[in-house]
Amino acid sequence: MPGSTPASSKARVYTDVNTQKNREYWDYDAHVPNWSNQDNYQLVRKLGRGKYSEVFEAINVTNNEKVVVKILKELYQKLTDYDIRYYMYELLKALDYCHSMGIMHRDVKPHNVMIDHQMRKLRLIDWGLAEFYHPAQEYNVRVASRYFKGPELLVDYQMYDYSLDMWSLGCMLASMIFLKEPFFHGQDNYDQLVRIAKVLGTDELFGYLHKYHIELDTRFKDLLGQQTRKRWEQFIQSENQHLVSPEALDLLDKLLRYDHQQRLTAAEAMQHPYFYPVVKEQANANTDGTKAISSSNAT
């Protein structure tokens, strides 16, 4: 719609978290952080290597303290079906928590997810692009790494919300189950939207643009063409079929939506059947732990 103003949009969850908090909570311009410096640590020698990491002796150059540094290896190609379900569930826990605190991460990608596979621990790191969410506020679209940018960023829609992180998580899930890294491999931001449209189709894209009164950059008109939506099953091959299940494809379909309002929230995604095996195992572990404590108290 030429000349029209983009339609307003608000997050479906945790909409007013920051509205209800004191300004000091979200006004980071007034906060002075106490940064540590990784440059203070100098590697001395390699101590060994394991399946998932390399270990080095290092020294803190500020006080000559000896430390041990573990550098984790890339894990993508080594994860089992259950591993993917488990770590995606753990990542959703992290996202739901930060969203409940009124914070959008805005740079969810594999390099910002650290996994200690031996301890089954996951950490979402690098909060340099994170931002506090306020309803109907316009945000900078120059965030997130290209391959994980949501369509809203690529069409310059500034009134986005937590659902941006859910698109990025969906891209990670697609990469892991299809063994295709990255899943949407654009050469630049324009080509990135084209790659998305070649999977999700152009009819749905234009429907999204119409709903939110978004005027598409004229450079896209020749680039996009007419694309038909692909079925997720088309990406199944012999080398990845052991990682793909009907529930995985259903979850993926509910995350990778043009319309940010239609994507699952982190809390909703955690309730998806794809994660039932993880939820069941964690429930059993908690039950066993409770029984062990009860037995200990009884003696």
From TrEMBL:
Annotated ATP binding sites: 70
GO molecular function: ATP binding; protein serine/threonine kinase activity
Domain named Protein kinase: residues: 1-275
Gene3D superfamilies, sorted: Transferase(Phosphotransferase) domain 1
Pfam families: Pkinase
Keywords: ATP-binding, Kinase, Nucleotide-binding, Serine/threonine-protein kinase, Transferase
Claim: ATP-binding is one of the keywords in the record: yes
Domain of life: Eukaryota
GO CC terms in record: cytosol; nucleus; protein kinase CK2 complex
GO BP annotations listed: regulation of chromosome separation
Residues annotated as signal peptide: none
SMART domains to which the protein is assigned, alphabetical: S_TKc
Record carries keyword Nuclease: no
E.C. numbers: 2.7.11.1
Family: Belongs to the protein kinase superfamily.
PANTHER family the UniProt entry points to: CASEIN KINASE II SUBUNIT ALPHA (PTHR24054)
Name of this chain's protein: non-specific serine/threonine protein kinase
Biological source species: Cyclopterus lumpus (Lumpsucker)
